[in-house]
Amino acid sequence: MSRFIRNEGPQGARLREWSTMLSRAASWIVSPFRRSEYLFMIVMAVAIGVLGGFGAILFRHLITLIRRAGFGEGDYSLDYYFGLDWWIVVLVPAAGGLIVGPIVYFFAREAKGHGVPEVMEAVALKQGVIRKRIVLAKTLASAVSIGSGGSVGREGPIVQIGSAIGSALGQIMRVSRTKLRTMVGCGAAAGVAATFNAPVAGVLFALEVILGDFGVRRFTPIVISSVIATAISHHFLGNTPAFEIAVTYEMVSPFELLSYSALGVAAGLVAVGFIKLLYFSEDLFEKLPFPALLKPALGGLLIGVIGLEFPHIFGVGYETIELSLNAELAWSFLLLLVAVKLIATSLTIGSGGSGGIFAPSLFIGAVLGGALGHVVHGLFPTLTAGPGAYALVGMGAVVSAGTHAPLTAIMIIFEMTNDYKIILPLMVSCIVGNLIATRVEPNSIYTMKLFRRGLNLFRGRDVDVLKSLSVSDVLGTEFFSIGPSTHLGTMIQLMVKHPDPYFYVNDDQGRLKGIVAVGDLRQVILEGGALDTILIAADVMVDDVPRIKQTETLDRVMRIFGTTRWEELPVVDDSGGGRLIGVVTRRAVIGAYNREVLKRDAVGEVLGGISSAAEAGPVLLSDGIAIAEVEAPGWMVGKTLAELNLRRKRGIQILMINPSNGSDASGETPQLVPKPDHAIKLGDNLLVLGPAEAIRALPR
User: Which of 436, 458, 480 represents a domain boundary (last residue)?
Assistant: First the structure.
């Protein structure tokens, strides 16, 4: 854990000393279990399940305490809110925003919004490292937002809280990055399971949304954490479904599959509208000439005004969902609630509030499905189920379409209602809704937030790994150049001698003028005859080919390859003169991507496996040679490996550099066999190999 605290002054030194003692004590306690990696992960999964379960319970109790402080004692039903003084309804959400703003602004910016995208980013880019302060910051900010009437849910915060707990425990135990990501998934599963009393849905959410990986090695510990958290929730909160439904719904006739498919289409379109409106609201509040600290209060004030007429939008909105499930609201009012809830949730999150979008999605799906159910049942009363059945299916359809996670949506509706008879219509609507939403908007409500930051996630990985690589990493210096006046006959002879698919046309100063693609010459060659001496390279070259600079990222290069016919692009010097210095091929870029992905996983495994053994001091290998993990002392900071020259001066080789917190703000990952020009940063951990005495004698 000491690697995660920066060395800044006496206070930082004391914190680092206590952190090291805590890490070593924890390692000593679990050292017997480390003899079996499988047993070790089981123990960690149990611990995360316990902490996640109690965290979810405490979070719910904190929401209740804040609600009582703001709105007073009561059952918090719709009638209760209608009976309150208008100024209480308006000012309590605004006061909540006044509290949330400073927490997010000063303590942890990651606590803003619904939380799940931040966990996905940590898994994809930071090997599962989440700042420990998130546990407290997210708990307070989200509890205040929900308790004061914000139109958000509990699941996003508890996913982030549980994931931060799993990450913190993994950092203390100094596990490998692969195991750390699994422990983050354990925390997410525990949070969802305990919050919704849905253990299977918790597992699927962690695998489908957070990790994007259904591998067996992750499955077992995540299941254990989910089960443990659910058991704790059952003990303290009871084993009852989240929603009480007066009747049992089932499919009345095969004809209903058409109407449920129509519901899926509607859910998909509404989910896309939800995504667009949510991020439009964020952009709108971002542009407001208003202090960032006060924007959540402004959003809360607007929520309070809406709540005067529609208190249904306050908090998670489970009461309104149950009214829809039991068909107690008119279809016209249900449609109105769709629009009101969309606006209210977008205002809460867009203004800087903290809370999840899962419960609002359930709300929107329930009222949308209920409205459609009223219409369908009114037209075909003998062939269709009642409006409540459509409300139930609509919940899953909107969740599936918005999160792009149909498996999680199907299972969570089943577990929250304990109603299996409606599973076939539920599956149809969820799949149709997901298909419509992904076709219209490829990004889910979670990944859209990351996409807007320049991160493109797919199955838990950053598709834009290429952003960390430059053209210089794959620059090819072998290419064939010709002059602008080269005749066609000469080019034909060169085609026979050289297999290159492109000839690069340069002037006398080496500046690129264009490219002659060998494939384009085929039709010209068929003409034959006098053209051999008439046509020259300048006549047949393509002069508008994209030119790449050596310092550009491979991400941009791959995007050019994806939108043009070229398999190879010219690289010109950065001075602007246009001199051709090399080429980059599509195959080279794809190869670089594959190597980088494999390297990130491999480095995480190597780092965790070695550092767990070397954390207590140098580990002797043979003949006095040892390996150890040390925190970079101050005299190394700012110097490159070439400047330090430890191998010549002290006989020590630096095998690996692990940045502070596992990755820096730019997403830097541990480096195996770092380059000589790599500069040591404050907080870096070094894995070193050399004589044991030389390692011990390193000045600190």
Answer: 458
Domain tally for the chain?
4
> Confidence band (pLDDT; 50, 70, 90) for 495?
confident
Return all residues near 22 (Cβ < 8 A) that are at least 6 apart. Answer: 1, 172
Q: Which residue has the tokens 């939008």?
A: 313
Encoded tokens for 453: 């930051």
Residue 620 · residue 626 · CB < 8 Å:
yes
What is the rounded CA–CA span in Å between residue 267 and residue 269? Answer: 6
Q: What is the CATH number of the domain that holds 521?
A: 3.10.580.10
Asked if residue 191 is part of any domain, the answer here is yes
User: Whose structure tokens read 């109105």?
Assistant: 336
pLDDT of residue 617: 57
Report long-range pairs for 527-535 (Cβ below 8 Å, ≥24 apart). Answer: 531/488, 532/487, 532/488, 532/489, 532/492, 533/487, 533/488, 533/489, 534/488, 535/487, 535/488
Average pLDDT, the chain: 80
Place of tokens 């253990």: 199
Quote the domain boundaries for residue 443: 256-458
Question: Given this model, what pLDDT does residue 7 score?
Answer: 41
Taking the CB of residue 361, how many other CB atoms lie within 10 A of it? 29
Up-side HSE of residue 524: CA atoms within 13 Å toward CB? 22
